[in-house]
Amino acid sequence: MVRKIGRGGFGVVWEAFDAKVGRPVAVKVISEENATDEREVRRFVAEARTVGNLSHPHIVTLYDLGEVRGAGFATHYLVMELVRGSSLAEVLRGGLPGRELALRWAGQVCGALDAAHRAGVVHRDIKPENIMITEAGEAKVLDFGIARLETQAAGLTSTGSVIGSPHYLAPERWSGGPVDGRADLYALGCVLYQLCSGEKPFTADNAVTLMYQHLNDTPDAPPGVEPELAALVLQLLAKAPADRPADAAEVRRRLAAIEAGPPVPAAPAGPSPEQLKERADQAWARGADGEPAEAVRLLRALLPEFAGVCGPADPRTLRTCHDLALWLARSGELLLAVDLLRELAAPPAGPPGAGAAGEGARADAARDLVRWERELARRGPGGGRLAGGASLTLGTVLLGGPPAGGPQRR
Question: Can 205 be counted among the known catalytic residues?
């Protein structure tokens, strides 16, 4: 043995060195006052069997169980993983951890409890003293010394004594009712209340008053805690087990969701090119049905979306601009139509080959430009602008802006 490092409910814990394996370990030896108590010895051995069947990164690992005989009785001991760090109780005496750390530790305890409960084991004494925070900042649950199998008939605690820590005991523990994993969830609720607010849900200084509070009083929401977390804590502290979360896995999921924060609303999905094309066809149909001004309105609203989804130089965008020019012309806005067709027909800026994808659209625009320029000349001055005197550029169309510039006479 190297040094005494603690005392549990009925055992003394030593730091030791396992020479066979070459590692430091923790050795828990039943205390002298309980060494001759057959019931306590049975409970101590039950701890070994309970912990030995659990394997989880947030549960202290049991390596071995043994006994030393002498002086008329056997001294039992456990050899366990040596966890270097501080108990959560010691951490809390130094101040509250940050929100993220508190939620992470509580989630890790839930993981340990979930593994235990699925194996049929109820811890029965979850409290800050039984949660170690390792030097790496991880939570580990220890001291399953008073745990019992859910399927085990009442035996070790059938004398009527209440085993556990009064500030964290579920109502059914006080009343002698059936106990399952939801009693551990209640205790976790007490711990989480303390982790988040620095206060215990019930603060009486004697066991009788604490018993009354746990059985009858509804605690206030933990102060300074966000509504979602406060609601979870209060549900964990429900008097009836059936009103608590169903299991530790559910609590862990809810803690993870709270830690992540409210979901960010997904950006609405933009229209597909096919949907835009369908809307362009509908605008063309309105023009063909004798409503060219309505076709112009629909296409002006649609073109910024085409530019955003397909790109301003994409042939689909350019052909829709061409459609707009045609319906402008047929609605009497020849000058606006010719302005737009000239830009559409112009060679693209850049090195040779730039804009090759739009060559077909430019050729179509050039063909219609000749036609409408001829019509504009035939009508003479003032015959090409029936509803305004502003020029129209490709840039304003694609950005959704109004026609630019002042009156222009031709």
Answer: no
